[in-house]
């Protein structure tokens, strides 16, 4: 039995997603220039390098947003609680 054919709309969406992935992965890989800055969470780190800042500035909005959406979806897919990093205020 032959697999079902995709509609033209789905084919276009798949092609766009594949193109975005091809463009996004290299953008994210350039963030490796920031690894020294990220090496010690919570520790006072030196300012990020110019290469790191350039890599961050070079990430497209689409790539950044899709990456954040993926990151935010992982906890529920793994059955763990999502981390909330906002500072909470406590009343005394």
From TrEMBL:
Domain Bifunctional inhibitor/plant lipid transfer protein/seed storage helical, chain residue ranges per copy: 24-85
Q: Which domain of life is it from?
A: Eukaryota
A Pfam family:
LTP_2
**InterPro entries listed in its UniProt record:** Bifun_inhib/LTP/seed_sf, Bifunc_inhib/LTP/seed_store
SMART domains this protein is in?
A: AAI (SM00499)
Gene3D superfamilies, per the entry: Plant lipid-transfer and hydrophobic proteins
What is the name listed in the Swiss-Prot or TrEMBL entry for this protein? Bifunctional inhibitor/plant lipid transfer protein/seed storage helical domain-containing protein
């Amino acid at each position: 039995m032959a697999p079902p054919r995709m509609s033209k709309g789905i084919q276009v969406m798949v092609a766009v997603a594949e193109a975005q992935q091809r463009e996004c992965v290299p953008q994210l890989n350039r963030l490796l220039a920031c690894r020294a800055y990220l090496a010690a969470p919570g520790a006072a780190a030196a300012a990020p390098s110019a290469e790191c800042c350039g890599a961050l500035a070079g990430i497209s909005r689409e790539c950044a947003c899709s990456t954040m959406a993926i990151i935010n979806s992982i906890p529920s897919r793994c059955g763990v609680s999502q981390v909330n990093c906002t500072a909470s205020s406590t009343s005394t």
